[in-house]
Sequence to fold (600 residues):
Amino acid sequence: MSHIIEVTDLKKVYPNGVVAVDGVTFSVDEGEIFGFLGPNGAGKSTTISMLITLTAPTSGLAQVAGMDVTRQPMKARLAIGYVSQDMAVDDALTGYANLRIQAGFYHIPRNEAPARIAEVLKMVELQDRAKDKVETYSGGMRKRLDIACGLIHRPKLLFLDEPTLGLDIQTRREIWKYINRLREETGMTIFLTTHYMDEADSLCDRIAIIDMGKINALDTPANLKSSLGNELVEFQFSPIDANEIQSAIEKIGKLDFVKSVTGAGIRGYLASVNNGEASIPAMFEALKDGHAKISHILFKQPSLDDVFLHYTGREMREAGGGKENAARNRIMMRRARK
Amino acid sequence: MKINVLFSDIYWVFWREIKKFFQQKARITMAFVQPIVWLVLMGNMMTGLTNNPMAAKMLGTGNYIDFMTPGIMIMTALFGGVMGGTSIIWDRRLGFLNKMLSSPIYRASIPLGKLLAIGVQIMLQSLIIVVLALILGVHFKTGIPGVICLVLLSGIFGMIMGGISLSLGAVIKSMESLFAITNFLTMPLMFTSNAMFPISAMPVWLRVIANVNPLTYATSAMRTIATQGWIFENIWPGVLFLFVMIIITTSIAIRMFHRSIS
Fold:
């Protein structure tokens, strides 16, 4: 099996001491859609930046398309395409001019350029708008143009950094369609980062969950979900003293059908169970002597959201509650897991 | 380093800048309006000056507009050139810089292509000034070869200022700070030079400053070409100065750019 990306103990420490990427190791197979899933600031963009030769790693090895990113950066650049999260296209120019510049940057011969441009325009279905200025494009069209720019030199490997950041839901679906089709039609390997669970779930063959510069889990979305068990119980307590809640969680954690309990931010807590819906009355039974009372409870199948929570110990988007609250929740969760 | 690849990379960076320049109608309009305002307004305001034989002698020509035209070319190059750094700050902000850096182009081609674009824009503006000046009755003593020299020299001067501005833009990273610094530079540079007033009409302290002001070197050479003819001993110091400066500022710009991306 040939690996198109081979990363060994890759590390990036910025001069101010911030450890952005803390020794990650993984490999990506040819033809795969591989996703880095993590919250903002998890180290996704820094990893991409090292893989596309823009940032020098502090230590470790990274090979893309057989080229070492620190020793053969020019060759690596020719083999890979990169689409940043910024939608970096020139508004004042036409779609065609944007692509023409890109073709120039990739040293595509003058007489070949028009055919190449037509080819990528067709791939993202922008043929009809090529002569219009980009400022007249919608958000989705800009993104498609940006993706087309990354395809102009027919790379073996395409990096998409947060491909649907800031787009509305229909447009995101549309972009997913193009990404899927790209793989089908060209067999290209795609490496993407995202902080959207649904995006990782519907696009990626394999996902690496990254948080605080480290990979916490790496598998197919289905395996990641089943690793949590097939059943989850989400519950919340009525407002009460934190110590009481902690002892209640410990009680639940000790029940023999409960595999683990993790905090889920404003959603309360999440218990991975193996006895189906019978777990709900059993949990109430376990708490009947204490002061903590469950106020909401829900039985469900695991989602990638829950997987993320399980592996990183925190929710992807801390929805409100402030820093202090989040920190307290984290401490609670860590205790509960032990 | 393959030289033809380097040239091709520079060309595409340049092409993008020029293409963007021609899309900005406001900038093109201003390229016409600004010299008209300067030439007509200043030329008209100062006509009284040339009625005085002493003043006419200081100006070296009987017509203030004749005196003023090379000065306006230099000023246009000065103001146009110092804006050059903004393009690199924009590219960084919009993510286009990363897009260029992730492509297999030579790093140096980014500042070089941008500088070349600045030079060409300024030469175009200078050409517009020449045409307007001719319409207003300005007489260029050295004819067409002289005009070509004037346009080239103002382009070189613009690239010198552009190199300084790009170097600043590479390190500063914020538009507001860049403007603060370039404004601080341009105004004193202009008013302590002979772009608008002859040195012989200045107080002694200002003459000392004017004589070391880079703007004065460029202006003197260009003004000699425009109003007096091919008097080489008045031209070569300015030309030499411009050529030395452009090598220095361009090298610094490339260096600063490299440093800012590593």
